[in-house]
Specification:
Blueprint: H1 2-22, H2 47-50, E1 57-59, E2 66-72, E3 97-103, E4 105-114, H3 115-120, H4 127-149, E5 163-167, E6 178-186, H5 188-193, E7 203-206, E8 215-219, E9 229-237, E10 240-247, E11 251-254, H6 308-313, E12 315-317, E13 320-322, E14 333-336, E15 344-345, E16 348-349, H7 350-363, E17 369-372, H8 374-385, H9 399-403, E18 413-416, E19 422-428, E20 437-440, E21 455-468, E22 482-495, E23 502-505
Parallel strand pairs: 1-21, 14-23, 17-19
Antiparallel strand pairs: 2-3, 4-22, 5-8, 6-7, 6-9, 8-11, 9-10, 12-13, 15-16, 17-20, 18-19, 20-23, 21-22
Length: 508
């Protein structure tokens, strides 16, 4: 036994002598570990969720499945004249009352952190705290999404067929090809999380026979309320159409016939889910489309509450806003900009002036803010600062300010000429789709209106953590000792004055 130990000892010493004569190299692993702080690359830009001035969050006074209030509707244009003859009674004032509902909906994101994950991260990062924080961030993003885009009513039934106009130039469609086209409309949530309306009625046209550089222009004939974008499907057979592209205006130029689903275009925050049949937004985000025209309507979801757009443009219904045309009109203003870009006109921006004029004509109020995507912010700023009317301000005495000027600019406020010069804020919101402008009026000081703030996020409970008991689950990764939890709220958006709001679609 002693000889065996002696032999192993001699071998070990020989290895040590060999190591000692080789020097210390990087490959020996004789170095420290430089642990920098833990980082996260998850954007959490949620301006609507955090704007508690425009969208105060309040807890309901009692438990209920829906928020309910009653309101007098605007029927000023139906009132009889107050001019009566001598000794005659005045005409009777007309009233129209509307019950308004906003159903509460739970929003929840779940998290899981194992006990072992907490252990191996000890003294570097608190794994449980990180799990909670990132789960809370995702709930904030969902709340921001719902405030702007939530929609519990369908955009439209089956959209009408597109209008097709062939051309002999601009593309690579072969001579004499019959081109078949369908489209589907995306709601606000669809734009960011996938899904769309059912596909439109099919249209087709045959291109000319004198060239192989043919193209086809397709258009829907106009925007629909809460339709922020369009998925286009194209084929050379009526039975096989493939996804072609997505546009934020109601038209597209088709230059070729796809043989497979195309890649998604570069649009800000457009959902990465493949378009087509089978897409179910939120319900099962792992289910992607098959690239063919959708056969189910996922433009709405009964689990959503109605955000600004849907509560403004939907009709008053029995249990909340419903598809336009199926209830009492809310009075909300809808503008189809016809695919035109914001343009300079008379020293101002045409579409903003049009919004202001229509709100003033309707309710004699000025909006508080235009909620826009960054692309429309760039367009409006470029139009105003790029014109000869753009002002330049130079400090009269500060030499450093005159020689250290900052280049560029952003139009943060726009003067409402219709309301006598009231400034209106331009707010960039990441979850307002390109091509859409939501115009928000936060205050309605009508006599006896009883409206403090127009909007509020009313909650049965707000952003709370709920812990689940971890069950025994052998043979499954993550099934060991763990912390399972949800962070959730039960909330709805209350919009007390849709008639003072406006939504613009189809902005080029």
């Amino acid at each position: 036994m002693s000889s065996l130990i002696e032999q192993e000892t001699m071998e070990t010493l020989a290895m040590m002598r060999k190591s000692a004569t080789s020097g210390i190299l990087v490959g020996t692993g004789a170095q420290g570990v430089d642990l920098s702080g833990f980082t996260a690359l998850v954007p959490v830009n949620v301006p609507a969720r955090m704007n508690t001035s425009a969208f105060p969050r309040e807890i309901a006074g009692e438990g209920s499945q829906l928020a309910l209030w009653r309101t007098w509707l605007n029927i000023n244009n139906q009132q009889s004249s107050a001019a009566v003859g001598v000794d005659q009674a005045g005409s009777m004032t007309l009233f129209q009352e509307q019950d308004v509902y906003a159903p509460y909906k739970p929003l929840a994101k779940a998290g899981r952190v194992t006990l072992d994950a907490v252990a191996v991260a000890r003294n570097y990062v608190d794994a449980l705290a990180q799990g909670e924080l990132q789960t809370l961030n995702q709930l904030f993003i969902a709340q921001d999404m719902m405030i702007s885009n939530g929609q519990a009513w369908s955009i439209v039934g089956t959209p009408g067929a597109a209008t097709l106009v062939p051309a002999s130039t601009g593309g690579s469609i072969a001579s004499g090809t019959t081109v078949y086209v369908q489209y589907a409309i995306r709601s606000g949530v669809n734009y960011f999380e996938g899904g769309s309306s059912i596909a439109s009625t099919q249209a087709n046209t045959t291109v000319g026979t004198t060239t192989s550089t043919n193209s086809v222009s397709a258009s829907t004939g106009g925007a629909v309320k809460c339709g922020v974008a369009y998925d286009w499907y194209v084929g050379s057979s009526s039975t096989t159409l493939w996804y072609y592209t997505t546009t934020t205006v109601d038209s597209v130029t088709i230059t070729s016939i796809p043989s497979a689903a195309a890649s998604l275009p570069s649009l800000p925050l457009l959902s990465a889910l493949a378009p087509g049949a089978g897409v179910l937004p939120l319900a099962n985000p792992a289910v992607a489309g098959n690239g063919h025209p959708p056969t189910a309507d996922t433009s709405y979801n009964a689990n959503y509450y109605n955000g600004i757009m849907a509560s403004t443009l939907g009709d008053y219904g029995a249990l909340g806003p419903v598809t336009p045309g199926s209830g009492n009109p809310s009075g909300g203003i809808f503008i189809d900009n016809g695919g035109n870009s914001p343009s300079l006109s008379g020293g101002g921006i045409d579409i903003l002036d049009k919004i202001n004029d229509q709100i003033w004509a309707s309710v004699q109020l000025s909006p508080t803010a235009y909620m826009i995507n960054s692309l429309q912010g760039d367009q409006i700023t470029s139009q105003l600062l790029g014109s000869g009317n753009a002002p330049t301000f130079l400090p009269p005495t500060d030499s450093d300010a005159r020689t250290n000027l900052a280049g560029g600019g952003f139009i943060g406020r726009y003067i409402n000429r219709a309301a006598g010069g009231v400034p209106v804020a331009l707010e960039v919101h990441p979850r307002v789709a390109p091509g859409t402008i939501i115009t928000r009026t936060d205050y309605v000081p009508f006599p006896g209106s009883n409206i403090g703030t127009v909007f509020s996020v009313r909650c049965q409970y707000d952003s709370m953590r709920f812990d689940y008991a971890a069950n025994y689950n052998p043979g499954s990764v993550g099934g060991g000792p763990r912390y399972d939890f949800e962070i959730r709220s039960m909330e709805t958006l209350v919009n007390r004055a849709p008639l003072a709001q406006a939504v613009v679609h189809n902005v080029g």
